[in-house]
Write a structure and sequence with these properties.
Chain lengths: ~900, ~375
């Protein structure tokens, strides 16, 4: 038995054509703390995902905690001993849940009982300083607190291997320091626990015992930080990292030596006075004031969510301030209007170019939108392409560009109109050090040579140190402003980072963590882990999903009110009654006989008479506009012919555009005509002679109101569509937000995950069902003639099946919008065509009949129709219900098989 | 002015490029204007087709046999013989839509002039089939009985004959109706989705902020989206009408297609504006999807495209006059089915343009407001 906790040998990983890992091999030692360093996109996250068992191993061999990670059985056994915190602030947490609810959820997944859970939660909250915020929703936590919560959730089950993927990116320096102190204390208490961390901050990497530097999917080198520095002969890790890069990558290295700013003009470019912005109760920016001189590079330093972006949006005029004033070149943005926008360039936080356009198309589009004349636009674009070294990528779509080049393109676009002022919101986050250096060299050039004022925000200390002046921002307030050197001096600190920390502490900062031990006692007794099915884990998901659903008013509202609205719309809209056919008469005869004929129609409830038609042309026109659905023409001499017993002919024109309406109208027309003939015959004393009579009995719906026939179908359709859509959204939402990782790395099984999430939606569907039945009987006036109990049981069985149908769709959709429309189409089409809503199932033949047999609605429709209009109960519908109940297990198994327990 | 037009033009080009590079949307568009239309045209749901019919023959006579064999495809499936005692049960299970009960001694009674009664049981829950089909069944039965009585002799003509003409669609072919309605529904659906998705996509990618900091007015941004989406859908509609409906399905179109396309453009202005407006209300793509369903479904179901608007309650008809899609459906049917000219449909055109202007103004007004509230 070696002391290796994890070993990887020659691991390769591809995403489509892109290679993320190229034959990586490494060994982690028990009780060690290893750090993966390198910029975004080099394969750090992929490697950690594989070690955590979240990603499938494509090629190579990985052993973790004494077994092959490729074996599902081994993963099942060891996953309670691994804790994994994926990248992104709290990506595997549930933002709508409170701190305590999040921890409870994770504890339940690892099978802890209530008492054990409470004890450990109290300890962890005390140790991380989160105890006062136990009831706060995770979405309202600061970045640092969110990461601490992530750590609590990871530690709740006392893991042997802790995997942290960029846990401190975008967190303020004090919170970062506290986070690492916490990890250190934890390691001191549990010396056997091994930790592996990825980070993009080189300065942070100094803390780790063992470093692994990665570039382009391969390991550049590894060793202790001191050894790495010594081997490369550099002073800092960042320099060492650059030195280790292959020569090709290092070629074209630019050192951003920005000369000190000369004593240029002191004209003020930007000034802010008491800027304040509120979002509801939340104070995003609180009384911020500063002024920036022309040609200055001014840095805004602070954590994610501290108000940097909001301040910048107020400066650009995107967001009106709640209070205070922002002036650009002495003018208010709004007042200056369009003219000012030509003087400002803005680069927003996310990459904000059209990814579907090529580099050249992007540049030209912006040049044109800034009103550059066509020839100047082309010249300007050529010049920019040269300055920003974009020549090789001119016809590449922006989506296909590496991050560093995209940032260059963004900057090129922001300066296309040669603005005097540049506002850049975190322009370099995620960019590798070399690209960052080039970017800053360009900024230096713009500032010093072209006198462009640059206002830039960042959370990298070394970038902030390059600015002429920086403002330290925290929780919506500017704590201090000054040149980096002045700030360090002022706070008696060696570096800007220490100055910031001192400043944060002076401002009250984040709550200092209690010095309590993190884990007073290890987990006493793990409950026996049920490998296949544990009701506790399932209900953990049920509880969580219910809480989330209750807090998401949009989805909840759609499920309940939206369904009721659609039900009423269908009830009123899908009306096949043809009641008041608008008709008019072109009476060329005008005799008592012709008037008697018209009287037969106007007296009928099925027809509504409009003003008489004047001419043949009018007949055509009035039918063409759709005003008349029926026109009757009585020829001259009609009265005379009838009186003399000579055959007469009447013309009738029916609007055939809407076929069923036309057919029904024809039926009414012939009925009225026949009655007229009968009356005529009776009047002449000749009784009609029919050889037989035909008694047509409209069963179940004597009045033949279409609402009685359609309503049960609408009920079945909505109960199929809406619960399926919500269910599909619920699963795909987890995929989009990233919390699906918890399915990959915790002991929860696919069946528990599916069933647990399904239960709240089934309950919700039953609530909607109750509302719809109430609407049907009270508002639409369709009485329930049969057994309510049979209808309810049938519905319950049905919604279990339809929610499973949604699950099935969700297994092959990757975005919520695809899941939404996919489910809608895949429900409505078979529902309308093969399930008996429009034409009865008994009329289907061939493929249609087979499709109908395979869709649950074909079995539910007889239940809803049967109970509502036919007065049936369990006795008659029992068999159908049994058939319907087979769908749930079948669809459930299919969905469970198709749902992946690992990411590709 | 020229500057505004230039801006709208270049932004519009960008929109069209973005649309063309979105594989899913292009696929959705092609599918809905071709296969979806074809399948709707071939949908037989609105007519009596393959109706299941059974006969409880308690007479077993020549006449009752003839009556049973009178039901022919494609309207009816071959009639099945059942026992009279099973009638109720089979109707309960919805095995048949029509069950005819021919009483004992039926033929004898007919021949003796005792005017016996045949009973036709119709499952009135079978929506469309039941109503129209019941009339067919009566006619077929009566014809058969008459033929038996007269033995093929000429029946004296009625005193007054009624010559019924079906205007605009002489055979009442549902395919005509369904394919045109399919196009109308697609225009409605795609215009809202495309315009709404274009805005949400810009917001999610952060490019909306970018546009708003440039020397562009919200009116220009919104107009570019409306025009670009309108252009794409108009092209698809034109191709679909000429190639699919007229060419492939060989459905005659009564009126002037150019006139209809003018109307479509007006309506696209309205529907795209609604899409833009919804996108300013929704915060994310899934929310837009849910909102879309709540807006589109009622518009589609209630504006007279699927079922006659005269059948709705009077108050609802009044309400629907305030929705542009009602006017769109009205002029679309008037032009395409009934060959109406501009002199007949201009009030509907005017109404659509008016509603479009209102929603466009609303969308532009919300544009800036919403982008401001979206916290970065």
């Amino acid at each position: 038995m070696t002391d290796a906790v994890a070993t990887a040998r020659d691991v390769w990983h591809r995403y489509g054509p892109r290679i993320a890992l190229r034959g990586v091999s490494l060994t982690l030692h028990r009780g060690g703390m290893a750090g993966l360093i390198g910029p975004d996109g080099v394969g750090k996250s992929t490697l950690l995902g594989i070690l955590a068992g979240a990603k499938r191993i494509q090629d190579g061999r990985v052993e973790v905690l004494g077994g092959d990670l490729g074996s599902a059985r081994h993963r099942g056994l060891i996953c309670p001993r691994i804790a994994y915190m994926p990248q992104g602030l709290g990506r595997n947490l549930y933002p709508d849940l409170s701190v305590a609810e999040n921890i409870t959820f994770f504890a339940s997944l690892f099978g802890q009982g209530a008492r054990e859970r409470q004890r450990r939660m109290d300890e962890l909250l005390a140790a991380t300083g989160l105890a006062p915020f136990a009831d706060r929703a995770a979405r309202n936590l600061s970045g640092g607190m969110r990461q601490k919560l992530g750590l609590c959730c990871a530690l709740i089950h006392d893991p042997d291997l802790l995997i942290l993927d960029e846990p401190t990116t975008g967190v303020d320096p004090l919170a970062r320091r506290q986070f690492w102190d916490l990890v250190d204390r934890l390691r001191a208490e549990r010396p056997a626990m091994s930790v592996i961390v990825a980070t993009a901050y080189m300065d942070e990497a100094e803390r780790f015992e063992h470093l692994i530097a990665m570039h382009d999917g391969a390991i550049l080198g590894s060793g202790t930080p001191a050894a790495l520095r010594r081997d490369t002969g550099c002073d800092t890790l960042e320099e060492s990292f650059i030195a280790m890069l292959p020569p090709v990558a290092r070629a074209g290295r630019v050192r951003p030596d920005i000369p000190p700013r000369g004593d240029g003009s002191h004209e003020v470019a930007i000034s802010a006075h008491g800027l304040t912005r509120r979002f509801g109760d939340f104070l995003a920016v609180d009384d911020v004031s500063f002024s920036i001189e022309r040609g200055e590079i001014f840095g805004f330093l602070g954590s994610n969510g501290c108000g940097k972006t909001t301040t910048m949006k107020m400066l650009t005029g995107l967001l009106p301030p709640t209070a205070g004033q922002a002036l650009l070149f002495g003018q208010e943005m709004d007042a200056a209007g369009m003219a000012m926008r030509f003087r400002v360039g803005y680069m927003s936080q996310s990459f904000s170019l059209y990814t579907e356009l090529t580099v050249q198309q992007n540049l030209l589009l912006h040049a044109r939108l800034y009103q550059l004349p066509e020839d100047r636009a082309h010249r300007r674009v050529d010049a920019l392409v040269a300055t920003f070294s974009l020549r090789d990528h001119l016809h590449v779509r922006a989506a296909a560009l590496p991050l560093g080049i995209r940032q260059r393109l963004s900057l090129a676009v922001a300066v296309v109109h040669e603005p005097e002022l540049l506002i850049l919101d975190e322009p370099t986050s995620g960019v590798d050090p070399l690209a960052r250096d080039r970017f800053w060299a360009l900024l230096g050039d713009l500032s010093r040579r072209r006198d462009v004022t640059i206002f830039v925000s960042t959370h990298f200390m070394n970038e902030a140190a390059r600015c002429d002046r920086v403002a330290l921002m925290h929780a919506g307030r500017v704590l201090a402003t000054g040149s980096p050197a002045d700030l360090a001096r002022q706070w008696n600190a060696a570096t800007l980072e220490e100055a910031f920390i001192a400043c944060l502490e002076a401002a009250g900062g984040e709550r200092p963590a209690a010095e309590a031990p993190v884990l007073a006692a290890p987990v006493v007794a793990r409950e026996p882990q049920h490998r296949w099915f544990s009701p506790r884990r399932m209900f953990a998901y049920t509880r969580r999903e219910t809480l989330e659903l209750l807090r998401d008013h949009i989805r909840l509202g759609f499920a309940v009110l939206g369904m009721a609205l659609l039900f009423l719309v269908f009830g009123f809209g899908v009306n096949l009654d043809v009641n008041t056919v608008p008709f008019a008469v072109l009476d060329r005869d005008r005799t008592p006989e012709s008037r008697a004929y018209v009287q037969a129609f106007s007296g009928s409830a099925y027809f509504a008479e409009h003003r008489p038609i004047a001419s043949a042309q009018a007949l055509h026109d009035r039918m063409a506009t759709g005003e008349l659905k029926l026109a009757i023409e009585i020829p001259p001499g009609f009265g005379r012919d009838v009186r003399r017993g000579r055959p007469a002919e009447i013309g009738a024109w029916i609007d055939g555009a809407m076929p069923f309406q036309a057919e029904t109208t024809r039926g009414y027309l012939q009925g009225v005509h026949a009655r007229f003939l009968q009356d005529l015959a009776t009047a002449r004393g000749k009784a009609a002679t029919q050889p037989a009579t035909i008694e047509t009995r409209f069963r179940y719906n004597q009045s033949f109101n279409s609402i009685n026939a359609m309503m049960p179908g609408n009920l079945a359709l909505l109960l199929a569509m809406i619960p399926a859509i919500l269910m599909a959204l619920a699963v795909v939402r987890e995929k989009e937000l990233g919390s699906i990782t918890n399915l990959y790395v915790t002991p929860v099984t696919r069946l528990e995950f599916i069933l647990g999430k399904q239960l709240p939606y089934v309950a919700l569907a039953m609530v909607s069902f109750a509302i719809l039945v109430a609407l049907a009987t009270l508002v639409l006036g369709v009485p329930l003639k049969g057994s309510l109990a049979a209808l309810t049981v049938g519905t319950l069985v049905y919604v279990f099946a339809t929610t499973c149908y949604g699950l099935l769709v969700s297994t092959f959709s990757s975005t919520q919008i695809a899941a939404l429309f996919g489910t809608a189409i895949l429900t409505v089409v078979p529902a309308m065509q093969f399930s008996g809503i429009m034409s009865p199932v008994s009329s289907l033949t061939g493929m249609g009949a087979v499709m109908g047999r395979l869709f649950p609605m074909s079995y539910y429709l007889p239940i809803s129709v049967g109970t509502f209009t036919k007065g049936l109960g369990f006795a008659e519908l029992g068999t159908t219900m049994l058939e319907l109940s087979l769908f749930f297990p079948a669809l459930l198994m299919l969905a469970a098989l198709l749902l992946r327990k690992q990411e590709r | 002015m020229l500057r505004h037009l230039r801006n709208v033009f270049w932004l519009g080009t960008k929109e069209v490029r973005s649309f063309l590079s979105d594989f899913t949307l292009v696929a959705l568009m092609i599918w809905s204007f071709s296969f979806s239309i074809i399948s709707m045209a071939q949908n037989t749901a609105q007519e009596v087709h393959n109706a299941a019919i059974a006969i409880a023959d308690e007479d077993h006579s020549q006449l009752s046999q003839a009556m049973a064999h009178a039901f022919l495809p494609p309207y009816f499936k071959p009639a099945q013989m059942i026992a009279a005692k099973d009638i109720d049960r089979l109707l309960d299970l919805a095995r048949y839509t029509f069950i005819i009960d021919i009483p004992p001694h039926f033929q004898r009674d007919v021949e003796a002039g005792r005017v016996p009664a045949v009973q036709v049981n119709v499952d009135a829950t079978a929506a469309l089939q039941a109503g129209v089909g019941a009339g067919y069944v009566q006619d077929i039965l009566m014809d058969e009985i008459r033929r038996h009585v007269t033995r093929g002799e000429q029946v004296p003509a009625d005193a007054v004959t009624l010559a019924v003409h079906l205007s605009f669609n002489p055979n009442a072919a549902p395919g005509w109706f369904m394919s045109i309605m399919g196009i109308i529904n697609n225009i409605n659906m795609l215009a809202i989705i495309l315009a709404g998705a274009a805005v949400i996509r810009e917001r999610e990618h952060g490019t909306m902020d970018h546009l708003l900091t440039m020397p562009l007015s919200p009116v220009e941004i919104a107009s570019a989206k409306v025009l670009a989406n309108g252009f794409v859908i108009s092209v698809a509609t034109t191709i679909s009408l000429y190639a699919v409906v007229r060419g492939l399905l060989a459905i005659p179109i009564a009126g002037s297609i150019p006139l209809f396309l003018c109307g479509v453009m007006l309506y696209l202005f309205f529907a795209s504006a609604v899409g833009l407006f919804l996108a300013t209300v929704a915060r994310s793509m899934p929310q837009l999807g849910l909102l879309f369903m709540l807006v589109f479904m009622p518009m589609q179901m209630l504006s007279g495209g699927n079922t006659p608007i005269e059948s709705e309650p009077a108050w609802l008809q009044v309400v629907m006059q305030g929705v542009a899609s009602t006017h769109f459906v009205s002029f679309a049917q008037a032009i395409l089915y009934r060959g109406a000219g501009f002199s007949l449909v201009w009030p509907d055109f005017l109404a659509v343009a008016g509603f479009g202007a209102v929603f466009f103004a609303l969308a532009v007004w919300r544009f800036r407001k919403v982008s401001a509230v979206a916290v970065g």
